[in-house]
User: Fold this.
Amino acid sequence: MTNVYDFDQAQRLWQNSASAQLDGSLDKNPDDVAKAFDYSKTTGVDPSTIHENLDEFESDYKSGLASRLIRDNPTIASFINAHPLHAGLIHDDLGRLDQLTETLGKIHQSVGDSPLKQGVKGFAEGFGAQGFGHWQETLSPEMKALSEKYPISSQLWTLLGVPIEVGMRGFAGILQGAKATVKGVARQTGATF
Assistant:
């Protein structure tokens, strides 16, 4: 009989404990608790400890993760250092950018001097490295004088022309890229044109 009584008592204690824990957790946000468990899986820190200071832990975790990504990814570090506002532009996309640059690096290493690489180089050459609005440098002297006299109007025209310029330069890049790809294939296969 003693064993049955002990079992019943243990079951009641167990149920009471669960009930007390539920009552004590009604004020907790389930999303915050889920975050604590997620961070626990990643870091190995007890989820209860994380939940007690979730905002601080989350901030420290993200800061440490960002520091590691910047340290290990020179492409991202270069971009951030290129302009004071770049960090604010990408801080919430660091993980995805790290994956992207890693993937592109692997593609770059595996491609070597392939026709695909030649095509990408051709596209870049066809698109051009000069800034948008560079066509203003080829204007007649009269138009240059007007651009210098009315710089704001000139910049507005440049801004309005960007979509057209992107389309034209993109098309030129595609043509140049296709040409370079075909030449690369021909070089690899020994074909001549």
